[in-house]
Design brief:
The chain is of the alpha+beta class and 125 residues long. It is built from 4 helices and 6 strands.
């Protein structure tokens, strides 16, 4: 069963329809690929985590792009595939007005998920 966080619903609804569609596509893909993913808002961004393991990925909308935040390991691992996009240490910018590269994003999400799933469970205090 997919669980959607109302705060993320509100976040997405706060943007123009074109950005909403892009973020809805990302959100649906994340849920399809990461069983048991939990949504929240962290650092003012929609965040997708695995309980007791950690954050898998984040995204956010900006004036001219949707930012995907798969953390530095993914940026390094997919450097060649990401050449046509603006990237930084832990972020990828996908321009608004262009289709999202869903196969590439799927590969990045699977990569991040494998890294997070390999972590030892976080100790609860």
């Amino acid at each position: 069963m997919q669980t959607y966080d109302e705060a993320i619903d509100a976040y997405i609804q706060g943007f123009e329809p074109e950005k909403q569609v892009m973020m809805d596509q990302l959100r649906s893909l994340i849920h399809a690929l990461v069983p048991g993913v939990v949504e929240s808002i962290k650092w003012r961004m929609p965040t997708f985590s695995l309980p007791d393991k950690g954050d898998v990925i984040h995204f956010a909308a900006f004036k001219g792009h949707i930012g995907l935040y798969p953390l530095p390991e993914a940026i390094d691992a997919f450097e060649a595939e990401l050449e046509q996009y603006h990237t930084s240490k832990g972020a990828i910018q996908f321009p608004v007005g262009q289709p999202l590269p869903m196969p590439l994003i799927e590969t990045i999400i699977r990569f991040r998920c494998s890294l997070v799933e390999a972590k030892k469970p976080k100790k609860r205090t």
